[in-house]
Specification:
CATH architecture of chain A: 3-Layer(aba) Sandwich
Number of strands of chain B: 15
Distance between the termini of chain A: 48 Å
Helix content of chain B: 25-40%
Strand content of chain A: 15-25%
Radius of gyration of chain A: 17 Å
Largest interface: A-B, 36 and 39 residues
Bound molecules: thiamine diphosphate, iron/sulfur cluster, magnesium ion
Oligomer: heterodimer
Distance between the termini of chain B: 45 Å
Helix content of chain A: 25-40%
Structural class of chain B: alpha/beta
Radius of gyration of chain B: 20 Å
CATH architecture of the largest domain in chain B: 3-Layer(aba) Sandwich
CATH topology of chain A: Rossmann fold
Strand order of the largest sheet of chain A: 2-1-3-4-8-7-9
Shape of chain B: globular
Shape of chain A: globular
Strand content of chain B: 15-25%
Largest sheet of chain A: 7 strands, mixed
C-alpha cells in the first residue's frame, strides 16, 4: 500500500512526553514539516525553552540548544550573529516569553533579529502545574488564581503580538490557533512562512499559537479546543499584525 | 608582539580580545568599563563576521554569549559588579553546558548600586560560585594594563581548551589607568570545535547543548565529569607571581592593582632590613594553594591585603591551615589603601 501520510523527516520515532490533546506536539510536527518542505532541516538550530517543551530535543532531528527561562531570544541572537547561515527557531511558551523573558523578546524584535519565534500561548504555566501566566484570561481559574484572575490585583492579559507590532523592525507577526481544521492549516502556513522569511534574510518574525493545555485547564481535549474557540480567541484575536518586506512601504495591518 | 602603545586598561582588554579572535561582543554600558563596549562598537563592525550588539540587559548579554559561543565563535561580554550579578544565571548555565567564553568584570564598589570606585568585593561571588549549582569559574586577576591584555588573550585559550567560562577581574582604576602595552599577534589558529559546536546537521547526527539532566544519577555523573576537568585546571592553570619572597619572613598576599601598593611597602621594609616579600595570586581560581603552603616554613606571618572586608583571606587561611598567623588589612567601599597605611599595618605585627 502506498503511504500517503508520512512522519516528517525532522522528527524521530520517539513517543512524545506531552499530555493527550496538548498543542505542543501538533506544533512540533508543523515545524518539522515546514523545515523539511523548505529544505532547511540541516541548517536549523532549535532552541527549547523552560517549560513543557524543554525536552523538544528528544524529538527533532536538528541541532539543538536549551536556553534559560525567557532567554531564548538572546541565545538566538548570539547564534544567528555568529553564523547567519543558521536557521534559528526560538520555541517559547507564554510564561517563558511573556513573563520571564519579556525584555528579551521585545528587544530581539526591536533589533529585528533574523530569527523565527514560535510562541505557544496556552494561558498557563503548563510545566509547573498550571499557575497563572501573564496571558491567563480574566476570571480564569488556575492554581495561583483559584478564584479566577482578578484584574484589580493581577492585571489583564498581556497581548504579545499587539505589543511587538508597535516596534518597527519585525517583518511578520501573526496569531493563529489550533482549535479547528481551518486554523490548524493557517498555523502550519504561518510557521512555514516565518521560516521562509528567515531563510530569505527578511528579519524578525513571530507566530503566536493559541494552544490547548487540557491537563491544567481541567478539561478533556475536545473541551479544551472549544474553550480556545469560545474564550481565548475573544481575548486574543487571530490575524496578521505585521506583514512587510524589507523593500516594501510601511504597512500596518492592525 | 606589536610595538608599545599607551592605552587604558579597558581598551587593552578590547584590543587584545580582538587579537585573540573574538569577533562577537555583547554588552551593556556600566561605569567603569564602558570603554570596552565603546571600543568594540568601533572595531568589530569592520571585521568580517564581526558584530557588536548592545544588549538590553546583562542578563541578555550573557545569554547572547551563550548562543554565539555555542555556534563555535569566540565571544565575550564585559561588565562591572552590578551587571555581573545579573549574569550569574547565565554563567551557571554556560558552565553546566560546557560552553567556552570570556567575561570581564571591572569591579566597582558595592553592595547594591554602591559607587564607581574600585573594589575587590566580588571575590566571593565570582570565585566561590555566584550562580547556582556545582561549578567553578576560572578567575584571572591582572595587576597592570599589560597583564589585562595578556590575560584576556590567554583567557580565550583556557576557555576553549577546557570548554569553560573564564572571568577576568580588574579593579575599576586598572580599567581606567593608561600604561604602555604591547599586543600579541592576531590569532589565526584555533582549537577544533566541530565535535560539539552547533553548525547544523549537514554531516553529523544532531548535537545538543543543554544544562538539563533530569535523572539524578546522570546529573551526578555530569557534575563529576565537570570536576575532573576542574581538577585538571587546578593542576595546569595555577598562576602567581612572587616578589622578593626568597627567604622572606613576612609574606604579603595581595592580588590585582593593590599588589603594586604592596611593592612599595615591601621596598620600604627591605630598606629597614625587614625581610618581606609578596606572593601575588594571578589566578584566583585555581588558587595558588601550594605556593602559599611552600612559604609556611619560612614565614613569621602572612599578611593579606584586599580592597574588601576580607574575602580572599579565607582562602589564604585554608592554605595556611593554622600553621602560622594570617593577618588581614583591608579598605572597602572604593577606598584604595595607601602605602603608608599598609606599611603601618604590617608593622603592627612585627
Ligand atoms: C528562573 C526560573 N524560574 C522558574 C522556573 C520554573 N518554571 C519551569 S517551567 C515554568 C513555566 C513555563 O510556562 P510556559 O512558558 O507557559 O510553558 P508551558 O509549560 O506552558 O508550555 C516555570 C516558571 C525556572 N525553570 N527557571
Ligand atoms: S501540562 Fe499542558 S502544556 Fe504541558 S504537556 Fe501537558 S497539556 Fe501540554
Ligand atoms: Mg504556557
Amino acid at each position: 500500500m502506498e503511504k500517503i501520510f508520512k512522519k516528517p523527516k525532522g522528527l524521530n520515532d520517539k513517543t512524545m512526553h506531552y499530555c493527550p490533546g496538548c498543542g505542543h506536539g501538533i506544533v512540533h510536527k508543523m515545524i518539522a514539516q515546514s523545515l523539511e518542505e523548505l529544505n532547511l532541516l540541516e541548517r536549523t538550530i532549535f532552541i527549547s525553552p523552560v517549560g513543557c517543551a524543554v525536552f523538544a530535543y528528544w524529538y527533532f532531528n536538528t541541532d539543538h540548544i536549551q536556553a534559560a527561562h525567557g532567554r531564548a531570544p538572546s541565545a538566538a541572537t548570539g547564534l544567528k550573529r555568529a553564523n547567519p547561515e543558521l536557521i534559528i527557531v526560538s520555541y517559547q511558551g507564554d510564561g517563558d516569553l511573556a513573563s520571564a523573558g519579556t525584555a528579551e523578546i521585545v528587544h530581539a524584535a526591536a533589533r529585528g533579529e533574523n530569527i523565527s519565534v514560535i510562541f505557544i500561548n496556552n494561558a498557563v504555566y503548563g510545566m509547573t502545574g498550571g499557575q497563572m501566566a501573564p496571558t491567563t484570561l480574566v476570571g480564569q481559574k488556575t492554581s495561583t488564581s483559584p478564584f479566577g484572575r482578578d484584574p484589580h490585583f493581577a492585571g489583564h492579559p498581556l497581548k504579545v503580538c499587539e505589543m511587538l507590532a508597535t516596534t518597527k523592525a519585525p517583518r511578520y507577526i501573526e496569531r493563529t490557533s489550533l482549535d479547528s481544521i481551518a486554523n490548524l492549516n493557517r498555523t502550519k502556513k504561518a510557521v512555514k512562512k516565518s521560516f521562509d522569511l528567515q531563510a530569505k534574510g527578511e528579519g524578525f518574525s513571530l507566530v503566536e499559537v493559541l494552544s490547548p493545555c487540557p491537563t491544567n485547564w481541567g478539561m478533556s481535549p475536545p473541551e479544551a479546543m472549544d474553550w480556545i474557540a469560545d474564550k481565548m480567541i475573544k481575548e486574543y484575536p487571530l490575524g496578521v499584525f505585521r506583514d512587510e518586506r524589507a523593500d516594501s512601504e510601511v504597512k500596518n495591518d492592525l | 608582539m606589536s610595538k608599545k602603545v599607551l592605552m587604558k586598561g579597558n581598551e587593552a582588554v578590547a584590543e587584545s580580545a580582538i587579537r585573540a579572535g573574538c569577533k562577537l561582543y555583547f554588552g551593556y554600558p556600566i561605569t567603569p568599563q564602558s570603554e570596552i563596549p565603546e571600543y568594540m562598537s568601533r572595531k568589530l563592525p569592520q571585521i568580517p563576521g564581526g558584530a557588536y550588539i548592545q544588549a538590553e540587559t546583562e542578563v541578555s548579554a550573557i545569554n547572547m554569549v551563550y548562543g554565539a559561543a555555542s555556534a563555535g565563535a569566540r565571544a565575550m561580554t564585559t561588565s562591572s559588579s552590578p551587571g555581573i550579578s545579573l549574569m550569574m544565571e547565565g554563567i551557571s548555565y554556560i558552565a553546566c553546558a560546557e560552553v567556552p567564553c570570556v567575561i570581564v568584570n571591572v569591579m566597582r564598589g558595592g553592595p547594591g548600586l554602591g559607587n564607581i570606585s574600585p573594589e575587590q568585593a566580588d571575590y566571593f561571588q565570582v570565585v566561590k560560585g555566584g550562580g547556582h549549582g556545582n561549578y567553578r569559574l576560572v578567575v584571572l586577576a591582572p595587576s597592570s594594563v599589560q597583564e589585562m591584555a595578556d590575560l584576556t588573550y590567554d583567557a580565550f585559550d583556557i576557555a576553549d581548551r577546557y570548554r569553560v567560562p573564564v572571568m577576568l577581574v580588574a579593579e575599576g582604576n586598572l580599567g581606567q589607568m593608561m600604561e604602555p602595552v604591547e599586543f600579541k599577534e592576531l590569532k589565526t589558529e584555533f582549537i577544533d570545535k566541530s565535535d560539539w559546536a552547533l553548525t547544523g546537521t549537514q554531516n553529523h547526527e544532531p548535537k545538543i547543548i543543554t544544562s538539563i539532566l533530569l535523572d539524578p544519577e546522570t546529573m551526578e555523573k555530569h557534575i563529576h565529569k565537570l570536576y575532573e576537568k576542574y581538577a585538571l585546571i587546578e593542576k595546569n592553570e595555577v598562576r602567581f607571581e612572587e616578589y622578593l619572597t626568597d627567604g622572606a619572613e613576612i609574606i604579603i598576599i595581595a592580588y590585582g592593582l593593590i599588589s603594586r601598593v604592596a611593592r612599595n611597602v615591601v621596598d620600604k621594609l627591605r630598606e629597614e632590613g625587614i625581610k618581606a616579600g609578596i606572593l601575588r595570586p594571578v589566578s584566583l581560581w585555581p588558587f595558588p594553594n601550594e605556593a602559599i603552603k611552600s612559604k609556611i616554613k619560612q614565614a613569621k606571618f602572612f599578611f593579606v591585603c584586599e580592597m574588601s572586608m576580607g574575602q580572599m583571606v579565607e582562602d589564604v587561611r585554608l592554605a595556611v591551615n593554622g600553621a602560622k598567623p594570617v593577618h588581614f588589612f583591608g579598605r572597602c567601599g572604593g577606598v584604595v589603601p595607601t602605602p603608608i597605611e599598609m606599611y603601618d599595618n604590617v608593622k603592627r605585627y612585627l
